[in-house]
Amino acid sequence: MIKENSDDPSAGGPNVIEVESLTKTFGAITAVDGISFEVRRGEIFGFLGPNGAGKTTTTRMLTGVVPIDGGSVRIFGHDIQKEPVLAKQRFGVVPETSNAYVDLTAWQNLMLVGDLYGLDRTRAERRSSDLLETLGLSGRSDQKVKGYSKGMKQRLILAMALLHEPDLLFLDEPTSGLDVQSTQMILVLLRELNTDGTTIFLTTHNMEEANRLCDRIGIIRAGKIVAIDAPERLKTAIDRMHRLEVSFDRPVPADALAGLDGVAGASRTGDVWRITTGNPDLTIRSLVAFSGDRGATILTLNTLAPSLDRAFLRLTGEEQP
Amino acid sequence: MNPAAYGEQVRRAWVIARKDIRVYYLKGPVLIFGIFMPVFLFLAFFLGGRQLPLAFLISGLVGMTLFFTSTAVSPAIFPWEGQARTLERLAACPVTVEAIVLGDMIASTLFGIGVTAITLLIGLALGLPLLHGIVLGFGILIAACCFSGFGVLLAVPPTNLPSNIMMLSTLLKFPLVFISGIFVPLEQMPAWGLMLAACSPLTYFTDIVRYSFTGAHYFPVPIDIGALAGFTLVFTAAAMHLHRRSMPRRI
Question: Which of A42, B23, B36, B151 would staple B71 via disulfide (CB 3.0–4.6 Å)?
């Protein structure tokens, strides 16, 4: 997909989103408590947090849907409060719940969005045809949206968000409750868009999705950012001890394994040895050498790295003891 | 193209107006209401045994038709959009709240003018002489804008239940009809009644319609036009300002 957006995509420096001391209160409740972060050009930024942590409120402030009580948000260098129209012209939004006009057809919805973003009719029609084809909706473009399934509605609002070829895309739980086919279609498209240079801000509960897609992840808890880093670094920072599972074709003594370089501890469950280590690389080398010295063939060897789920639960304080 | 420029925002307001017409006004029940309302008002006036002359009655009839149709749908659009979450889509688009309000007003104005044209055609078909067509046309245009602004203003309370807004709308609209010289000529009103009538934009439009068909009027035409223009500005400015504050609370 070649972008036709006439705006200079390099405008606004290396950061596409700059958030500083962002605050939102509802009465006595502080929903977002002075958070600061930035999203770099061309990255997929995952925004995670438990229910009620302030994800949606933050996203709504970033997209200019609700006003800010404190701090600032700059999108491509445009202050979202002072220059909301210029900022909004540069991004597209895919909310969790479909918000297409159900009494209009998919085509009419797309033409409406094209007009609202100031696209000329020829370009809007060409983009609409391409997007409907890509998202598997071209055969249903003249049907009213009220007859669409949830997956079709979600694909349509993605098409509506992409119509003006935004440089930045906000997505709130884009695959929540969707079937495998729609989920896969959306994820593939997001990867393609990112490869073509679109920056993506993704709010999700799906750790697997975040782990696979995101370059960096920000975790919010009770209105405060508790961590921002790459998924792998988040996981290892949370739990420095890795686990390995190994099994041999014959019995081996526990003290022999426990004495190997890199091994911090070893325990047996059935015929599988569970080994804890702070240095998985050194431990695997030791195990392979041990296997050769003892003439014990390794039957299975698995590394059990800390999961993003675990990192998330630990950071949000929801991990059960 | 500067999307924030006034001209571009007015163009996008027109896009919203077209959307409103397609989604909310070109519905069977709304169209039926638009066609039947003037017909039933005519029947009510003619079969009601009133002793007032037809030329006087037509001013009230046209006034009521424009007033009720211009304020019929516009108060409910914001709550409907809030309920359907389409308001969040509009809020995330590069359009200002002012453009959204203006779009709703344009759609409402066009609907009011369209239905009022039916009433006028019925009146002309019954042989009523139209003495000042240009004044009437201008009066209808500015009054339709004024009443549309009033209708959009009624939608300010941040509820997404259209029934709540419609109840408020009815509570405010019907008393205005009774103080605007429609059922009792302004000349026959007591002083306190005239003071109330002066506070209603419908009074000035009814006066213009009466002038257009009979040549008689209570206020000078420039005063009628000026008052309607003033009300239009106040309603529009208030609607834009207050919706800017209340819209986020609907989302």
Answer: B151
Which residues on chain A are in Cβ contact (under 8 Å) with B16?
Answer: 116
Q: Comparing A15-236 with A240-305, is the CATH topology the same?
A: no
Q: Domain A240-305 falls in which CATH fold?
A: Alpha-Beta Plaits (3.30.70)
Q: Is the pLDDT of residue A7 over 50?
A: no
Q: Residue A145 pLDDT more than 90?
A: yes
A223 at B interface, C-beta within 8 A: no
Q: Which helix (H) or strand (E) holds A72?
A: strand A70-75
Which of A74-88, A265-279, B232-246 has the weakest average pLDDT? A265-279
User: Which residues on A lie below 8 Å from B91 (Cβ)?
Assistant: 64-65
What is the model's pTM?
Answer: 0.84
Interface of A with B in 12-51 (CB under 8 A): none
Give residues 240 to 259 of A whose Cβ lies within 8 Å of B: none
At residue A253, the pLDDT reads: 84
SS3 A234: helix
At residue B182, the 3 state secondary structure works out as coil
Q: State the nearest Cα–Cα gap between B91 and chain A, in angstroms.
A: 5
CA distance B145 to chain A (A): 23
CB-based burial label for B49 (10 Å; 0-12, 13-18, 19+) = exposed
ipTM of the modeled complex:
0.90
| A316 contacts: CB under 8 Å, gap ≥ 6 | A49, A50, A53, A219, A221, A226
For chain A, what are the domain ranges? 15-236, 240-305
Per-residue model confidence as pLDDT tens digits over B134-156: 999 999 999 999 999 999 999 99
Task: Give the domain ranges of chain B.
Answer: 6-250
List B residues 61-100 in contact with A (Cβ-Cβ < 8 A). 84-86, 88-96
